[in-house]
Amino acid sequence: MQLPPETLARLATVGWSDAITLPEDARAEHVPARVIIQHRNGYVVHDGAQEFTVQPAARFLRRSLDPVERPAVGDFVLLKPGKPATIEIVLPRHATLSRAAAGERYQRQLIATNVDSVLVLMGLDGDFNPRRLERYLALIQSSGAQCVVVLTKADQHEDLDALLEDVLDVLPPDIVVHAVNAKDPASVAVLHPYLGPGRTAVVVGSSGVGKSTLTNTLLGVERQATKAVREHDSRGRHTTTFRALIALPQGGCLIDTPGMRELKLTGEEDLEAGQFADIDALAMQCRFGDCAHQTEPGCAVRAALESGELDPERWASYQKLRDELQAQASSLEAQLKRKGEAKVANKALGKRLNEKYGQR
């Protein structure tokens, strides 16, 4: 199945690109669209000409289904026409930003799919937190998307150069940092290269950091609701209550998200491959391969801490993330094992029923 040129041109306004391919089971009756809003009782999609409400196919509603396999904001989907139309197929994703859902039960939660860039917003009015930034980086590095750090409210900070040095100390050299005034169109113009035709970016950050303000400025209209932060602690209140994909005048798409107060690792991150690569390099220099970096002789990590080469707060952050990552990885492994055992048990039960009652 190939889409006609006029359909491709229409879908390009919601981020369709030549890299997207249709599956073999796609049929001529299927209507391609992109999920722009996800509600508890349905989805809103856009086909490049209009947006409308649709329902997921019954298989997406099974309680046993991994939430990651359900449609999410950013997904390109194929619809079966009807009243309402039904999401029949979710097209392959090229990048997925996710986190572990809140609560004790392990479950992954999709934040956005098919994103080229993740804009991590942090306010310079008291919101900036290097440790939280490290956590964002860990999640983004396993997503397949480019990470861009955006420091908002730059007009409210007196010593911007000194703060930028602190930020760069936390970041790997390949991460780009922009300091902007989210209310000023000229200031946010530095973000336009991430929002060109065929590109999609997702905005993440705490409540009150300026995500909706930035979205409105990029749009050129007041579409997203905004609120002022509390003066005594610079904390914001949720103004965006659901994820929404918005087409921009720059030609690309932006996914605005609610403020995230909890950023749990999924268990699939690789800390040593990103912002903690220097700590991994130090550990490789330890005398013993199984060094716990406590009291062992010849420990390069302890030596770096004592000399001031390694920041104690950064080391503590690495240990905390490492321990959480190991715990989440164990939860993920246990979950996969339970699913495998259940599948084997169901298969064995089906075989016994067939033997007793015959194939139906």
Descriptive account of the structure:
With 360 residues, the chain is an alpha/beta fold. Among the domains are: 5-90, OB fold (Dihydrolipoamide Acetyltransferase, E2P), CATH 2.40.50; 96-256, P-loop containing nucleotide triphosphate hydrolases (Rossmann fold, 3-Layer(aba) Sandwich), CATH 3.40.50.300. 29% of the residues lie in helices and 20% in strands. The protein has helices at residues 5-11, 130-141, 160-170, 185-188, 211-219, 277-284, 300-307, 312-357, and strands spanning 31-39, 42-46, 51-56, 76-80, 85-90, 96-100, 108-113, 117-123, 146-152, 176-179, 200-204, 244-247, 253-256. Strands 10-9-8-11-13-12 form a 6-stranded mixed beta sheet, with helices on both faces. The chain has a 5-stranded mixed β-barrel with strand order 1-2-3-5-4. A two-stranded antiparallel ribbon has the order 6-7. The model is unreliable at 229-240 (pLDDT under 50).
Topology readout:
Elements (H helix, E strand, L loop, with lengths): L4 H7 L19 E9 L2 E5 L4 E6 L19 E5 L4 E6 L5 E5 L7 E6 L3 E7 L6 H12 L4 E7 L7 H11 L5 E4 L5 H4 L11 E5 L6 H9 L24 E4 L5 E4 L20 H8 L15 H8 L4 H46 L3
Parallel strand pairs: 3-5, 8-9, 8-11, 9-10, 11-13
Antiparallel strand pairs: 1-2, 1-4, 2-3, 4-5, 6-7, 12-13
What level of helicity do the residues show?
A: 25-40%
**Annotation, overall tally of beta strands:** 13
CATH superfamily of the domain at 96-256: P-loop containing nucleotide triphosphate hydrolases
Mean pLDDT: 83
CATH architectural category of the domain at 96-256: 3-Layer(aba) Sandwich
Gyration radius, rounded: 23 Å
Helix tally equals 8
SSE arrangement, N to C: HEEEEEEEEHEHEHEHEEHHH
What percent strand?
A: 15-25%
Question: Termini, distance in Å?
Answer: 35 Å
| Fold-level CATH name of the domain at 96-256 | Rossmann fold
Strand order of the largest sheet: 10-9-8-11-13-12
Q: Structural class of the helix and strand makeup? A: alpha/beta
Shape label: globular
CATH top level of the domain at 96-256? Answer: Alpha Beta
How is the biggest beta sheet arranged? 6 strands, mixed
Low-confidence sequence ranges: 229-240
